[in-house]
Amino acid sequence: MAAPVEDAFRRLFKLYKRKQPLVELSGVLDFSRLEVNGSGAKVHPAKLSHSSVSDQDIQSAGLQPISKWKAYGLENYPGFIFISNPFLPGCQHHWVKQCLKLYPQKPNVCNLDMHMASEETSDLWGKSQEQLRHKGSRKKESRSLLEKLRWVTLGYHYNWNTKSYSSDHHSLFPTDLAVLSQHVAAACGFSHFKAEAGILNYYYFDSSLGIHVDESELDFSQPLLSFSFGHSAIFLLGGLKREETPLPMFIHSGDIMVMSGISRLVHHAVPRILPCPDGSALPYCLTLSLSEGFPIGSSIIDLCSKEDWDVCASYLCESRINMTIRQVLGAGQTFSTQPKQETYPCKDCEGSQQQDSEDTKKLTDSS
Question: Is 46-326 assigned to CATH 2.60.120.590?
């Protein structure tokens, strides 16, 4: 009996996940260098709604005025928008700190809850900060609890076993992250977006994210927002069908992806996390401080103290953090109403997506 034919997505995923021999990366789309290198892909400027959010409000979330954003679309991916690091200098620090210090706190849920008592996971930051501050000072040292973190869920908590959300598994969504998400969504034409659920993924150099489709939400008319901080990654953007060859692209610290319409339901994956090509411990944008005169008092951005940032920087030396934010329910919708296929963005999408039985959207570490 002949072995099953390996699909194009799986082949490319395995290629970019491979560490040895070294993989040629010249074919990976880099939005941050379009003006220097150009692109073989059909990239075009994305249309943004410059008047949807005032400069003052957008700055309060740590972002440049929308008119200054470098936002791109792809010809074969309607609804996909890539925004190349629109964050103001130093403002990424706030979001990194939140992902490590605040968002993992209870009642939010994390992977460590599955095999540790609640009192052991109640303050991951407090239990890890000293160890991270002195990381590398000993020849042999165990990983801190923060370094064992793989995912955190916010708002409606995603159930990894049933691949679903429910009304009885919910906590308040962080206000600052809701504001950031709503501003970005509005700038991309989704003024009624509600941040109702979030999955934070914590990557390390040996981590990958399997091929999957985000299809557990009950409303697909609103976008999926993705925010990245830390080391760069290779992201594979596929099609509605698993066998379609994906487009590889770099995601750098501060980059934002917005997936809506048809692109809301395409297969995607992260096969590899990359160290800085120049050997630096952190990407340059993470070494910048807040500009003098940044309006801390009228902003949702908190000043990240040197002590806190030292812990964050130590963590990020070998890591990447990704926040994916989504709206779960449509207007007037509840968890007991219409089946999901009735809220697909177009009739051609209905019933076309099946979660691959081999891959999940959980993070995996190479053995």
Answer: yes
